[in-house]
Every structure is written in structure tokens, then in C-alpha cells.
Fold each of these.
Amino acid sequence: MANRGKGYGPPLGNISEAVGNTPLVKISDRICPAAVVLSSPPSSRASFLSNPLSSVKDRLALAIIETAEKNGTLKPGQTVVEATSGNTGIAVAMMCVTMAEPFSIERRKIMRMLGAKVIVTPKAGKGTGMVEKAVELAEKNGGFSKVFLAQFHYDTTGPEIINDLDGVAKLDYWVTGYGTGGTFHGAGKYIKEKSPDTKIVLAEPQAANLIGSGIATERNADGSPASSHPAFKAHPIQGWTPDFIPLVLEKGLDLKLQDEMVEIPSTAGVEMSQALARKEGILTGISGGSTMWAAVETAKKAPEGSVLVAMLPDTGERYLSTPLFADVKAEMNEEELAIARSTPSWIL
Ligand code: PMP
């Protein structure tokens, strides 16, 4: 009730001004008895306006577009092409987006609703095919009509976490996953600079092995990852561990930023997302559940009273058609199922 009636302040000039400043929320001992776990949810109902498109990528997209406009990389009328698993594409919501087939159908619908042109690349080409298509489209649009999106978590997510805890608690562990690596490298670098004792915990799918595998350690003489990297195995955590070498790794950014690694067993992320929804009222996606699972495992081994922050990258509503909602679907009665079947867009 603490914030009831407080309001947001004077009217915002436009919706982009609502991006960022998501609250940290304490997780109860129903999820984690051993330690104080705080999560950084992008869009529980209460903080919906903090990230109007409900993911950690909102502030990123805003910073990218603003910076590109300021430095002249992006000029009026140009097309922005983004290879995306969905959240950055939704956040960018510009003229032209490509995405690989395995990502949820609701992401595509939301991007189209926002006026983006969605180009779905074949499953067989995986993430690499998606990026190649983005390059092709950007080049077709001529010369400078492309903006490849770098990551801005150093300027946004990192400071938000440090500022929120300033004078409140010492941050013992910061737990995150790894997709493009933007959150890990950007926010992680800021957190280490400001709070060197904070341990960074990196979670990755047990089935895949981007970080644990040779990709991180097998380096060419110049420090870039060796091209003979293992093929990454399929895993259920959308947004994590893509089957291409993220740009941040190509640029040789420091993977040693992590102090610990936690491997997430296949269904653990879904189960933890469901527990967060049912026990805490926090509706987050599969990567959010996976990160929380890693945080709870870390907390079990940490000294009592440790403070952990787990990143919850997006809302669970982005997963209505996925196994995250399988239990819910199974609970629907015949009447509900009949309505669902007779509604053409019933999955969404
Ligand atoms: N979770 C979800 C749902 C995502 O879309 C992404 C971004 N692909 C991530 C986690 C990973 O974040 P990052 O790209 O900053 O490593």
C-alpha cells in the first residue's frame, strides 16, 4: 500500500518517457527461505508504466534510438532493421524487423500491432540465418539505412540497481542470464565498478553451452572466439544462449566478469516462473523464472542474510502459447475450450 495514491507526477510528453526505473521487489520466503532476494521485474501490474512494452529491452531501445538520432547514424525516414527474438524488436517497434521462427507467436503479433514489418526466417537457418537476413535487408535499403543495435545497459540498468540499493542494502550477488550478453556485460561492468564485492552469477541452460563451452575459452590469437565453436543444442529458454556468436563476444568482451555459473535444468525455469506467478503474483517469462531459479540455488549456498538481485527480463504474457501456460490450458473446462476453439485467435 506504500505507494498508493502517489501517482506518477505530471503527464508524460509521450510514452517513451515512461521507460525505465523499474522497482526492485522483495521475494518472500515461500520462494527463497535462505536469503533476501530482490527481483527487478519489468512489468508486474504495478510497474507496467515503468516499461510500457513490458521487457528489459524498452530502456535499451530508447537509448539506442536516441543516441543514433543524436549522433546522426539514424536519420529521418531511414529503416531500422533488427534481428530479434522478440523483445528488442517489440521495443524498437520500427519499420522492419526480422525474427527466427522458433520464438513465440505473440511476439510477432505485438510487433505487427506496433507497425513493424515482421520477416520470419526459416527455423533451419537458426539465429545465424536471422542475422544474415537482417544484414541483407539493411544493405538493400542502401548505404546508411541500417542501425545495428549495441547495448546500453551500462548507462541504464546498472545504475538503476546500484541507486535503488544505495543506503538500503549491500548487494552480495547479482544474477542474470545471457542472450546477446548486453545485460551481463553492460550492467555487470557497472555493478563491478561501483560495488566490487558483488558476485556476478551467470545462468545458462544446461542443454546449451555457450559460456561453458569452447566458445568462450577457445580463442584465436587476436582474442576473437574460434570459429570451430560447437553447435549449440536446443533449449527452452527463449532469449537465452543464441546459436550465433553474440557481437559482444566477437568484440572480445570480458567473460570473466562472472564469479559463478549456474546451469538451469530443462523445466526448472518454467516451474519457477509458475511459482513466481502463483506465490508472489509476479508474472514473468521463462528466462525470468530461470534467473530466479539460479538466484535461489545461489542463495541456498550463500551466507545467511545475503542480498541477491535477480533480473526478470520480460512479462509472462509474452508466453501464452508456450509450455509456460500448459498447466493453465489443462485446467480450462469444456465450455472455455469451446469458446477458445471458436475464436480464431484464441491462443492470442
Ligand atoms: N530474456 C529474454 C526474454 C530476452 O528477450 C533476452 C534478450 N534476447 C534476454 C533474456 C537476454 O538479455 P541480453 O540479450 O541482454 O543478454
Amino acid sequence: GWKTEDVMDEEIKVINNMVVPDDHVICALSGGIDSTVAATLVHKAIGDRLHCVFVDNGLLRYKERERVMETFERDLHLPVTCVDATEQFLKLENNAFAKELENNLGKKPAFLVQGTLYPDVIESCPPPGTGRTHSHTIKSHHNVGALPKDMKLKLIEPLKLLFKDEVRQLGRILTVPYSFLKRHPFPGPGLAVRVLGDVTEDNALDTLRRVDEIFIQSIKDAGIYDSIWQAFAVFLPVKSVGVQGDQRTHSHVVAFLAVTSQDGMTSDWYHFEREFLDDVVQKICNNVRGVNRVALDITSKPPSTIEWE
Ligand code: XMP
């Protein structure tokens, strides 16, 4: 076992050895715990030679951009530029951040900070001799290996030996607000992995945002958010017949799920109260146009993964 304070001091030493006084470092903040804790740690080590970019890739949740920018600026004092890349999200790669910095500040960064965690490393490519059983690539969209091949930046990955609960502990020591640390994980590729099928069809992203917001807000109102590892909705490319008033409808099906987990490596479905489910399904069908059916995912991991894509 190791103490989180020791990990922090050790990582700050490592970063200060790697990054010489003239070097600049960039970090893409996703709004999640991992990149935020990684950036806060690097900021502690090298101060304002760290430059963070928050990219609104058009695949964020409802009001996400406003919510996270406020935390970065007001609570963490991180130097963050917000880039609106909604139009070009599919083409945007990490080296776009480097260009942004070069253009705006006239400085060429040498390093890129990534909030890679240990489970990302072992699920993508298990280090030899770890005795882990995940010997193949389970998911292709994890952060590891997702960088452009021609990237000249060296990587700083200060969390790559940590599990999520250890990152939360580290975040607490770095005074990242508790309300932020307890946020459910959200995948880097955003809502794209939660729209099964074409993301540009049938108003899928907006519909999903509305469903997700109602679902998550209901979970918070019920006081169960902290008991759940992760909860979210999935937009299915499937329509089914329904009836509203005296009209037949032919609308989309959405699924939602909530899971409990220690580290995201395995999970179990969260057992909601029946009244909670009745209430949330009614709210969704009454308030979200284009949805007439809600399914609940009760599969554990394995055999499923938590995300559907
Ligand atoms: P899966 O779906 O593989 O996910 O069971 C395990 C945990 O990792 C999150 N996840 C991701 N996080 N980039 C991320 O930063 C990704 O591409 C990604 N894919 C999955 C997932 O939400 C769950 O908490």
C-alpha cells in the first residue's frame, strides 16, 4: 500500500525533473475528475507554465460547459481557455490544442498532460507481469492510444498507477471541491458513445441531453447520487409504437442504467425503488418529445461493459 500524499509528492518531483524551467505544458480538460486532478497536480508543480484547454466538442451534457468552466476558474484557479469546436469535433485531435497555444500565446508546448488511470492502461494494453487477466483490448475508445501518431508532445500521465478512488483521494488533498470529485465518470468521447447509430439523426443529441438531465436530476433529488458509480441514458436507433392522448406515436426508445462499482472494472446494476422508476419514466415520456418508451439496463459487467459502445 501507498499513501496518497506520497504519490502526490513523488509525482510533483517527477514532473519537476521532466519539465525544465523554459518548458510549457498543455492539458485538455474534459470536465471529468481525472483530467481535472491531473491538471491541478501539474499546476501545483509548475504553476502557470501549464495551459489548459477545455474543448466543447458538441458532445457534452446539458449545461456542461458552463458548469465545469465555473469550477475551473472560480474554485481551482486553473488557467483555462475554452474552445468551441462543435462544428469540427470529428476532425479535432489533441494537436489542435498545441496550435491554439502557439497562436494565442506565442509559446510552443513540450508536454501534454493526460488523466490516464490504471484501469485505462490495463484494459487497453496490460503491462507485462501485472498478473492481470485483461490480455486483450476490451474497448477501442479508451484514452490510451487515442493520440495522433505524428504528435511531437511528450506525455505527462501523473495518475497512470491510480484507481478512481485513489484519484478522488488525491483530489481531496489538492482541494478539488467535493461536489466535483463525486461526479460520476463521463467518457472522453462524450455523448457519441451513448448515441447508438448516427449522432446527427433524429435530434439524437438533444433528446439524449434532455433524458439524461431528467434522469440524473431525479437521482440527485432522491439523494442516491453518491451511492451510484455511474448513471446515464442511451439513445437507441430504434422506434416503437406508442399511444399519447388518442394518437398513435412512433417514437424513439431510450435506455437508462445505473451501476455500482469499485473501480469500473466490474459493475452491478443499481436497484432502484419502484416509485422512483415510475416517476422518472413518466417525467421522461411527458417532457421529452420524440421518446415514447424507456428501457432499463440490468446487466452487470461482465458480460456487458458499462458504456454501450
Ligand atoms: P466500460 O464501458 O469499458 O467503462 O465498462 C469503464 C469505465 O470507464 C469509462 N469509460 C471511459 N472513460 N474515456 C474515458 O475517459 C473513454 O473512452 C471511456 N470509455 C469508458 C466508463 O464510463 C466507465 O466508468
